Amino acid sequence: MSIQHSDVLYTAVATAENGRDGRVATDDGKLDVVVNPPKEMGGSGAGTNPEQLFAAGYSACFQGALGVVARQEKADISGSTVTAKVGIGKNDDGFGIIVEISAQIPNVDTETAKGLVEKAHQVCPYSKATRGNISVTLV
């Protein structure tokens, strides 16, 4: 199910110059970063890269979704962290990405944590956007 333009609560706007070897900035000036390919891909590694930015956004969004689910389940997730590992590599169409989401939830048992993570994966907008398009592993 998709959202309609009238349902949009917030829109982020970012502009890239020179692709993977340039800079990316938001229209509000809150983000302005140099981007370079990592050394592993032949770049200088001097700046950040799109995969790091995607990992940052995905981990923050997933943590938010985990909070929503935890409130519904009345679970204590204080002190929890979510890490997104984003890999890029060659595939049949050129390049593709894979993601591993790892959550540390210290105040619940392993089974409860697993259930919360699986439910968060169902409600996280990043997970919804990538479902069926990239491999996402939950840890």
Automatic annotation (TrEMBL):
Transmembrane segments: none annotated. InterPro entries: KH_dom-like_a/b, OHR, OsmC/Ohr_fam, OsmC/Ohrsf. It comes from the Bacteria. Coiled coil: none annotated. GO terms for biological process: response to oxidative stress. PANTHER family: ORGANIC HYDROPEROXIDE RESISTANCE PROTEIN-LIKE. Belongs to the OsmC/Ohr family. This is Organic hydroperoxide resistance protein. The lineage of its organism: Bacteria, Bacillati, Actinomycetota, Actinomycetes, Kitasatosporales.
